[in-house]
Write a structure and sequence with these properties.
Helix content of chain A: 55-70%
Oligomer: homodimer
CATH architecture of the largest domain in chain A: Alpha/alpha barrel
Radius of gyration of chain A: 20 Å
Largest sheet of chain A: 3 strands, antiparallel
Shape of chain A: globular
Order of helices and strands of chain A: HEEEHHEEHHEHHEHEHHEEHHEEH
Distance between the termini of chain A: 17 Å
Structural class of chain A: mainly alpha
Number of domains of chain A: 2
Largest interface: A-B, 45 and 45 residues
CATH topology of the largest domain in chain A: Glycosyltransferase
């Protein structure tokens, strides 16, 4: 593969603008009842109409971001508004907490047991407020952000199944989502809040969740960063660790912290060496740090978002460090991803492959895959390669 | 394969007595701190020491049942007592509800969010009380049974994530577990309670959960037995449907209801025709009745218990009806199971295979696989073939 940044920028840009965005524009918008259909089969036909709050908010965020960052197209804003209006009306309970799922017409299906619903709401309404200029959207964003801050030390509240105190593991997801959220709300927050949260996140992730011996990110550690020898304590989620590392690179780059950028790249490379399937290619979904059987039955499957987050991390690492390992791995993961996940025949990308790389679920969207990881990663890779092509 | 019932009875009996029971005797008993290790690798080495209440209680039940029904061996009773004493001391919260998981030394790890922990406790302590003659064990059994009756209309209580009323689906698991439990507690319950519960269960399962058009068991239906077009409403769990059918056969046989036995056999055969993987053999774990992608990523995997429950259903169907399809399917599932799940090299059976029948998790026990389905099914198949060999 040629190190042709201009051609790569074009490939990712045209996949985004000519394939992926049109797929969601054409198949997912519920113009009749508001919000989006995300359960789409290979060809884009709707096979289920339930509305999952994570994916609804992520699609509002995505189309608002296209409007804000690519081009202020009126039809993109209309699609974002179609979700935002539906969600503002139906998405929250009487106390302003965000439900997990709704029926097609907006009746609550699953309780607000999950803080991430509020996170994605804050991100979505922040970017939608920026796009639309609507003050009410800004208020929805700030209210959801308040929920997250209020609930972050006990994310599942009364729905928590863990017995308090026995095994007080903390999860990588919490600092990651806080950093992500804070970046997405930057125009609504005081600079000082922004600086503090970002500095604390990088510190916590790189000191506590990064295992200094193996150089791998752990999903769950004790409050002081030590390990526990139990299923959750041994768990590695390679895609999540790699995603965390491009967040860290992005934040470190804003702060001019070159050492942390290099450290994050080291971790990405360590994870790739550990989690790449040398028999069939692709990255495993879950692993046990000690090599024991994980309890996730889907552990050996190859998931779209894992590979897309890796492409973002490697292209960003290449842009920020020019280390040759980034380019070597990028080619390998790019080839695997485009030859296994992309579906030139019907558009968009498959989400779930088995270990051998064969399609496991013949869909383009479901309960967890919506209009988010594919377009976000295509956009970010395009941006990295555009910057690289201007550098060279 | 020869229709030699004597040889089959011998095969299942010797696998149970000479392979499977010794495997659990040798590797799983925590003589030091009480209870059992269930996370055992291929060779039986312990790789995790957490104690999951379902599996702890099931092993108490299993060794008590060996003692009660095979032979009153003192070492089997000692193994049952080693679990029962540990569980009586550590298994329940202050209100007598059964936790979901404990640490090795008995500290609570996961709250009593699940009614099935109480079910398995009632079954375990009923059979342990019968084996040991201990009155305290009888009391533990009756108290757990009381929890189940109290919680059965709202099995997850405050941990329920479903929003009340929007989609009031009922689950096949509830009548099944109630029937199972009632049978296991028969010596402690009035005959009238027994008769009523069993008659109601068979009625509810065969009228509401059985789809009269397709002849398949659905996992979740509306209270009147109608279907809902949503992920949960379209869900089929072939192994669970087949397990339900041998329960129904067993109950119908006690009640001399030949028509229901034949109907249950019909359903087993329908499920087998629907869920057998014609490419690689074996039964799928989850399916969508409409052929849409299920949201269970493990849907195409081949699980030990699915196949063992099927062997029980087919051997029981053969014994009770002598229908040739039972024998035809029995041979097919027997061959698949013994050639894929059994592990003559290290003993016991693998639990989790991928769609192609290759080992997915290299273990003999974990969070969900313990000393239960393999020995129970080997015992029940042995009994069916012994009865058949006496009939012929």
């Amino acid at each position: 593969m040629e190190r042709d940044f201009h051609a790569l920028a074009q490939q990712y840009k045209s996949a985004l603008l000519e394939d992926v965005i049109p797929f969601w524009e054409n198949h997912s918008v519920d113009w009749e009842q508001g919000g989006y259909f995300t359960c789409l089969d290979r060809a884009g036909n709707v096979y289920d109409t339930d509305k999952f709050i994570w994916l609804q908010n992520r699609q509002v965020w995505m189309f608002s971001t296209f409007y804000n960052q690519i081009e202020p197209r009126r039809d993109w804003l209309a699609i974002a508004a179609n979700g935002a209006n539906f969600l503002a009306k139906h998405g929250r309970d009487g106390e302003g907490n965000w439900y997990f799922a709704l029926t097609r017409d907006g009746q609550p299906l699953v309780q607000p047991y999950n803080i991430f619903s509020d996170c994605f709401a804050a991100m979505a309404f922040s970017k939608f407020a920026l796009a639309s200029g609507e003050d009410w959207a800004k208020e929805v964003a700030l209210q959801a952000y308040g929920n997250v801050l209020r609930r972050k030390d006990n994310p599942k509240g009364k729905y928590t199944k863990g017995y308090p105190g026995t095994r007080p593991l903390k999860s990588l997801a919490v600092p990651m989502i806080l950093a992500n959220l804070t970046l997405e709300m930057d125009w609504l927050l005081p600079q000082e809040t922004l600086d503090t949260v970002l500095a604390e996140t990088v510190q916590e992730v790189m000191a506590d969740f990064l295992d200094p011996v193996r150089g791998l990110m752990f999903e769950n550690v004790m409050p002081d960063g030590s390990h526990l020898d139990c299923f959750d304590g041994r768990l590695l989620n390679p895609g999540h660790g790699i995603e965390a590392m491009w967040f860290v690179m992005d934040i470190a780059n804003r702060r001019g912290d070159t050492a942390t950028i290099h450290k994050a790249v080291d971790v990405v490379l360590n994870i790739l060496n550990f989690a790449w399937d040398s028999d069939y290619g692709g990255l495993y979904y879950f692993m046990d740090a000690e090599g024991h059987p994980p309890h996730q039955l889907e552990w050996d499957q190859k998931l779209w978002w894992v590979h897309l987050e890796t492409l973002v991390a490697l292209s960003m690492g290449d842009r920020l460090t020019q280390r040759p390992e980034c380019w070597e791995w990028f080619q390998k993961v790019h080839d695997y991803s485009w030859s296994h996940f992309a579906d030139p025949e019907y558009g968009e990308w498959f989400g779930y492959l088995n270990r051998r790389g064969e399609v496991l679920l013949n869909l383009k969207g479901g309960k967890w895959k919506g209009c988010f990881h594919v377009p976000r990663a295509l956009y970010l890779c395009w941006q990295q390669f555009e910057a690289l092509s201007l550098q060279s």
